[in-house]
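Below is how a single chain appears once it has passed through the pipeline. First comes the sequence as given, then the structure the pipeline wrote out for it. We keep one example in the README because the format questions we get most often are answered faster by looking than by reading.
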Amino acid sequence: MKRLTSLHRALICLVTGLALLLAGPAMAAEQKKDATAGTARTPVEKEVRSSGNKQVSKKREAIIKEAVAALEQTRKALDAIEKKKKQEALDALALVTGKLEIVLAREPALANAPIDVRVEQYDLYATVDAIKKAVKQVKDLLGDGEVQQARMLLSGLASEIDIVVTSLPLASYAHGIKAVAKLVDDEKFQEASDALHELLSTLVVTRNIIPLPILRAEELLKKADKLAETGGRTDKQNKELASLLDGARDQIRMAEALGYGDKKEYKKFYRQIKEIKKKTSGGGFGKGFIDELKKSLHDFKEKIFNRTGKKK
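Resulting structure:
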């Protein structure tokens, strides 16, 4: 493969960055910045936000308050240890143990207790062709061993809502706290501090991904479904229906270009859209025309969401 000059590589990164007009990551909590502010990507942005918020709410409902309290007491214990306040540290560690015992007694099979949920949103303003071009450039750079240049481009190739959950690993955390308490009791404060810092580094972080193009396609199809069931549609309604179906197809193409899910499943989606367009052409109408595609996309999205990424 022809090697790229440093100037050529820099120009690739600059041009691709300008072409993609990346927006994100955007935190959907205190630091939230709406990546879709300004010009709406589709006519369903409100519905997309609502659907994403529902998934986040489900995760937040799983937070265990005793585990949250255990983490707070751990930090108090660490502060006391660093100040060599033995009894204060032991009292805080005892509270940690008590909170964890409550969780384990209530849910003995639970491995990780959720203590925090945050949302990261990455959005991408780009055509499918621009995405494909960027992917090709990434492959070329990797082929030339330019890993960091490729990483810069690859990091922007995402359009998704990430739900990031932090959890306490119950069994190992409870065991670790007891070991720290023994060190504190022996007044080995530096060893106790080191052990507690190490224990805090074992928190489990999981990431569930919702691809925004698939979510947008689902919401576009919901609107299209209502029109597909309408008999005697006007020309304006027929154009709107066609536009919604084309929009859903374009969002699916974007998801495919970004590499979400199993590539083999996309052929089915395109076939189903083609069948819907055929059934609704010339004013055709009826119930259930879009049901199969909606279910296919829902199942596809759930597979991606439940394929949890985990790190410690």
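The chain has a mean pLDDT of 88.

See the next section for the split statistics.
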